[in-house]
Amino acid sequence: MKVSTIGECGLIERIRSILPQPRDAVLGIGDDCAALRPAAGTDLLLTTDLLVEGVDFTLQTITPYRLGRKAMGVNLSDIAAMGGLPRAALAVLAMSPDGEIEFVDELYRGLHEEGVRFGVEIIGGDLSASSTLTIGVTLVGEVKTGRAVTRSGAKPGERIWVTGRLGAAAAGLAALKAGCRLRDDQVEIPFEVSESLREAARQAIERHLCPIPRIREGRALAEAGAASAMIDVSDGLALDLVRLCRESGVSATIKADRIPIDQAAAAVAQRFGHDPLAMALQGGEDFELLFTSSWEPADIAAIFPDVVTVTEVGEVQHAGQECRVERQDGSTVTLTGGYDHFGRR
User: Fold this and answer.
1) Annotated binding site for substrate
2) Which residues bind Mg(2+) 1 (predicted)?
3) Which of 14, 95, 146, 220 has the most CB atoms at less than 10 Å from its CB?
C-alpha cells in the first residue's frame, strides 16, 4: 500500500501505533511540541544527523529496518562522545507519496528498537513529501552539570586513545560496492570465497549498516574524569583527530603500528585491493571513541575491564605543526583524508 493511500494524518497515526506511549516525556506525539523535563543537576545535550538517499545510503544495500537503526545509532554516538546519557528523540522523514507504507513501518521499527537498546523514546518529529528519501533524527541527552567532554580540552603531552577496532565500516562499504549483500543475517557474495572471508564480509557489512554507539564507554570516561577531550570517529580517525586538535589548539602524532585495525576489515580490504591501514585511518563510520587523557595506561585500562578494547595510538603535541602519522621506519607524513560531505569526489 502506498503512503498516499492513507495521507499524512493516517501515516502519523500509523507511526504512533508503532511507537509505545513515552514514559519519560511530559508530552509526546500529538501536540505542536513534545515536552521533556530535564533531570536536576544536568545539562542537556542536543544533536542531529541526516541520512540522505544516494549520499549516505542506497536502498539496494540496506533494509528499512537497518536504516532506522543506523539513523538512531549515529546520533547516539554523538551523545556517547560527550559522555552523556541519551533520553529522547525526534524523527523526521521526507519521502515520496508513492513510497510503501510497509517501508515506513520497518523504518520506525528500527528506529524504535535501536533507541530502546539505550533507553531512548521517540517523542515526536515531522513528515514531508520529497523526491529524495531523507531521514533525520534529533536526539536529546543529558550529562551531569559541567561534566560534558568536549573536543577542546586536549593538552600537549597527553596520550591519545581509541576504543574498539577501526576499518570495519569502510570494509563493509567496499564489500557492498563489490556486489555483496546482507539478507537477514546471511551474506550473499556473487563470487567464490572462503568461509572465513564470507564471515569477515558479513561482520564488516553489519558494522557499516548498524554501527555500535559507545554510550557505556563514553559515560564511564566522563564519570571518571579520565578524558580531557573526546570525539566519535564518524569521518575517519585522520580527519576526526585533526578536528579535535583544532578545537583544542594543539597538534598530534599517532603511530601507524599502533592503530587497532579490525581483523575482518583487514581480510575484506585485502580481498578487494584496499589498504587496511588507509581504511582504518580514513574510512569513517566506525563510531568508536577517540579521546585524550593524562591518565596512565593501567588506569585507563581499569575503566574498561570487560567492555571493549582501548588502544593508545599517539601523543598530543604543541601547536605549530600539522597532525602527523609515524610510519614503522620512523618517518612521518601529514595526517590527511577522511570523509568530507562537501569535498570533491
Assistant:
1) 56, 285, 339
2) 48-49, 126
3) 95
